[in-house]
């Protein structure tokens, strides 16, 4: 476990249902790092959050020894670099490391945004967003074939970055009355989703599904009535 000094140095500012925040929590837990968690109201942002992250004004924000790090993927790399000896997340090989970063960005820009748009839009726009999500997932399916996890035999950086697919996406499918991940079309992704959310560290650090369903139903009702309102989770 982390030392008492490390405990006092780490504080994570987050929002309970944010997949970006959970990425950071999973990384901290996998590395057995103790930290203080401070919940934020993203709809009524505190002056402290705005002070810590004046550029993007959003969570997650990690404070380590009075140093402030924002943006979830950046935070993941910071954690991995700072505590290299504790459960390495990124591959050691430079090419594999570059590939992990590439696919993490791809999953965020091409899959997460399209899936969220599908949830919070209607009609033709919704159908286009569903199709874009499925097309992007086909690339991820190819990356997973023959593997337990993106990182090989254990969870790594890319698994954490794309981990929302295993838990948030099924909730969005339910709330949005849509089907994106078909087990026959995406056997590798489907198997990975099951393995990922059943990993002890991940399983013990997930938001309650029933509470998520209520939250996303509420968000969908609001955002479907607003043009481009789908951007904020």
From TrEMBL:
Q: Which reaction does it catalyse?
A: RX + glutathione = an S-substituted glutathione + a halide anion + H(+)
Xref: CDD domains: GST_C_Tau (cd03185), GST_N_Tau (cd03058)
Q: Which GO terms describe its molecular function?
A: glutathione transferase activity
Stretches assigned to the GST N-terminal domain = 8-87
What is its EC class? transferase
Q: What is its EC number?
A: 2.5.1.18
Q: Which GO terms describe its biological process?
A: glutathione metabolic process
Superkingdom of the source species: Eukaryota
Q: Which UniProt keywords apply?
A: Transferase
Pfam family of this protein, just one?
Answer: GST_C
What GO CC annotations are associated with the protein? cytoplasm
Q: Which residues form the GST C-terminal domain?
A: 93-215
Concerning Gene3D superfamilies, the annotation shows: 1.20.1050.10, Glutaredoxin
Family designation: Belongs to the GST superfamily.
Q: What is this protein called?
A: glutathione transferase
Q: Which organism is it from?
A: Manihot esculenta (Cassava)
């Amino acid at each position: 476990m982390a030392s008492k000094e490390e405990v006092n140095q780490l504080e994570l500012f987050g929002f309970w249902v944010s997949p970006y925040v959970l990425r950071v929590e999973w990384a901290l837990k996998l590395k057995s790092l103790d930290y203080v968690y401070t919940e934020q109201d993203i709809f009524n942002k505190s002056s402290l959050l705005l002070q810590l992250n004046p550029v993007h004004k959003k969570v997650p924000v990690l404070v380590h020894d009075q140093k402030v790090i924002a943006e979830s993927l950046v935070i993941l790399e910071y954690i991995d670099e700072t505590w290299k000896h504790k459960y390495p997340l990124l591959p050691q090989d430079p090419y594999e490391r570059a590939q992990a970063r590439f696919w993490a960005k791809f999953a965020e820009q091409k899959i997460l945004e399209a899936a969220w748009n599908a949830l919070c839009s209607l009609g033709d726009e919704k159908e286009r967003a569903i199709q874009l999500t499925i097309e992007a997932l086909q690339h991820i399916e190819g990356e997973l074939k023959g593997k337990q996890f993106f990182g090989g035999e254990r969870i790594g950086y890319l698994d954490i970055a794309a981990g929302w697919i295993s838990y948030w996406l099924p909730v969005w499918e339910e709330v949005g009355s849509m089907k994106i991940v078909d087990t026959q079309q995406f056997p590798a992704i489907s198997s990975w989703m099951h393995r990922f959310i059943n990993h002890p560290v991940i399983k013990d650090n997930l938001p309650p599904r029933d509470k998520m369903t209520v939250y996303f139903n509420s968000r969908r009702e609001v955002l479907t009535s607003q043009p481009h309102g789908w951007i904020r989770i």
